[in-house]
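Message: I would value a second opinion on how I read folds in token form. Give me a protein, with the fold worked out from its sequence. Write it directly below this note and I will take it from there.
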Amino acid sequence: MRTRIKHLVLICLGWMFVALGIIGVILPLMPTTIFLILALACFAESSPRFHQMLLNHKWFGPPLRQWQQTHSMRRDVKKKVYLIIILSFAISIGAVWGRLWLQVMLFVIGLTLLACIYRIKESN
């Protein structure tokens, strides 16, 4: 019984992370990749079919396969991520102009994200 519940919880979490990842494609402050990596981990433990579905996806599959195999990111993908983070946080900081504490908070979060991405191994 516990195995069945664990299985269902992991599938539900996996789909929730997929949904958050898809929302992250649209919203600038939502990190798409990390949610898809979490979904991949949930599906690896609960559903080989959904796991393969993510790995074989037209857009998300190649970076997820690379992450699963080498825990690295292609240099061009990393550059795109840097650009998206910088642009989205610059727009967000501009949108809260006059609220210094929000601007500082966004700036710190942006720098933290950039540092996390920087620490990921690069592949060519």
Observations:
- Helices lie at 2-26, 32-46, 48-55, 61-70, 75-95, 100-119.
- The radius of gyration is 17 Å.
- The chain has six helices and two strands.
- Residues 72-123 form one domain.
